[in-house]
Design brief:
3-stranded antiparallel beta sheet, Arc Repressor Mutant, subunit A, 9 helices, alpha+beta, 4-stranded mixed beta sheet, Beta Polymerase, domain 2
Length: 178
């Protein structure tokens, strides 16, 4: 799908490289080795993306490192396109289906207020395989460089508690539609 919008395979690889994990930094020769393409083709695309403001760069020693420019007006849209193209929405469904009998997943705390935070607070409603959840949290924290806290309620416990028990209205991010 994305190949019909962007004809340069090298540009697509660079967008995936930098916009999937936005903390990724790379320099020309490392990309040449990783992509198995000529340095000239990669250099041309890096320069185009940098001139457009989508990538930023910094010199470290004799290497010029590139990284996604999170301040670019289209940053979030490109990031979302890359995630959708790779099927992250499907991955989320699969992860949750392996997590147990989950009814809903909410974000609470600062993120539910719309305030960026180094801590992600999750509320899971249903029966959870806690060992698998802890494994996922450990992996996720390493990938996103944030801490994840969670609370699990069964459906009855959550209904008794009520949404008013939270300082901020929990934000629904996933619901079992079955």
């Amino acid at each position: 799908m994305i190949e019909t919008l962007i004809s340069s395979k090298t540009r697509i690889k660079l967008l995936f490289k930098f916009f999937l994990n936005t903390k990724t930094k790379a320099y020309l020769r490392s990309l040449e080795t990783e992509f198995g393409e000529s340095s000239n083709a990669i250099r041309v695309e890096l320069n185009r993306l940098e001139e457009a403001g989508m990538l930023s760069s910094e010199i470290q020693g004799n290497k010029k490192f590139f990284q996604a420019n999170e301040g670019h007006p289209l940053f979030h849209e490109i990031h979302n396109i890359v995630k959708k193209h790779l099927g992250f929405d499907t991955i989320i469904d699969q992860v949750i289906s392996n997590l147990g009998d989950i009814d809903e997943v909410y974000v609470t705390g600062s993120l539910a207020k719309g305030i960026d935070s180094p801590i992600i607070d999750l509320l899971l409603i249903g029966e959870v395989k806690k060992e698998y959840l802890l494994h996922l949290i450990e992996k996720s924290e390493q990938m996103i460089s944030r801490k994840i806290r969670y609370i699990v309620y069964d459906r009855n416990g959550y209904e008794k508690l009520g949404k008013d028990a939270f300082e901020v209205q929990p934000l629904l991010i996933w619901k079992n539609e079955q």
